[in-house]
Amino acid sequence: MKSINLFRQKILSFLAVAHIFIMLTLVSCAQQPKESKIGTSVKSLKIGIIGSGNVGGTLGKKWSKAGYKVFFSSRHPEELKDLVTSAGPNAQAGTIENAIKFADVVVLAVPYKAEAELSNKYKSFIGDKILIDCDNAYSFRDGAVVADAKSEGVANYTQRNYFPKAKLIRAFNAVNASSVASADANNKIAIPFATDDPKLKSVAEELIIAADGIPKDGGSIKDSKSFDL
Ligand SMILES: NC(=O)c1ccc[n+]([C@@H]2O[C@H](COP(=O)([O-])OP(=O)(O)OC[C@H]3O[C@@H](n4cnc5c(N)ncnc54)[C@H](OP(=O)(O)O)[C@@H]3O)[C@@H](O)[C@H]2O)c1
């Protein structure tokens, strides 16, 4: 009888230890991100926006209202208070450097001529982060670089000369910011995108959908020349 009780006690202790082990494993699994940084949980990606004007402001507002954490930036971040208020609680603003440091996904929405300067100052902070290039190159505004950039394809030129390590997505350059602003669930807008990395397609598609767009796969970064404006 004594040995049966001892055996029962050992079994109970073993079950208690096993129970604690299983609970600890479950808790630790629950604390892990559910997907990798590039995967279906794009919503966990933090977005930093360089150039919070028509394009950057419109996209940032759409994404913050859709639940993404958005960091608007400017050379004068104190001027972005109204934008942050209208974007809601998921939005904040600050310097360009801090937006890049905050972000998993950096969005470039500046006049094309600014890209050279931004590359010099911030290329090392951007590193191999995901970079969405929304910029168009116009000679009346952006000067001498435009001829070469347009003949090569603007995003290809950007990748090669300015942000060679970045995981580049070309998107949002071929749609008017006001059309994106007025799009909604019942009135979506086709938005072409391009990337060389198949794993980035889900990121591009999800962010386009969150901006009330319909993603249109435009192929590789080189192919994106076809939708340069
Ligand atoms: N507007 C459209 O419908 C549209 C559509 C598709 C693509 N695009 C392209 O998207 C880009 C942005 O257009 P946008 O209409 O949004 O322009 P925007 O309203 O003028 O905003 C551009 C922002 O770029 C920032 N910026 C300018 N020079 C800079 C520099 N040297 N360094 C850092 N930031 C600088 C400015 O921010 P701070 O002065 O606050 O620093 C400004 O808020 C352009 O390349 C444009 O061709 C525009």
Key features?
229 residues, alpha/beta, Rossmann fold, eight-stranded mixed sheet, 10 helices, globular, binds NADP nicotinamide-adenine-dinucleotide phosphate
Explain what this protein looks like in three dimensions.
The protein has an eight-stranded mixed sheet with strand order 3-2-1-4-5-6-7-8, with helices on both faces. The termini are far apart. It is an alpha/beta fold. The chain is globular and about 65 Å long. The chain has helices at residues 2-31, 54-65, 81-87, 96-102, 114-126, 139-142, 145-152, 154-161, 177-182, 201-210, and strands at residues 47-50, 70-73, 91-94, 105-108, 130-133, 167-171, 189-195, 213-217. The model is unreliable at 14-40 (pLDDT under 50). It is built from ten helices and eight strands. Helix 7 crosses helix 8. It has one domain (43-227): 3-Layer(aba) Sandwich (Rossmann fold). The structure holds NADP nicotinamide-adenine-dinucleotide phosphate (NAP). The site of NADP nicotinamide-adenine-dinucleotide phosphate has 22 residues, from helix 2 and helix 5. Keywords: Oxidoreductase. Residues 46-136 form the Pyrroline-5-carboxylate reductase catalytic N-terminal domain. GO terms for molecular function: oxidoreductase activity. Pfam families: F420_oxidored. InterPro entries: NAD(P)-bd_dom_sf, P5C_Rdtase_cat_N, STEAP_metalloreductase.
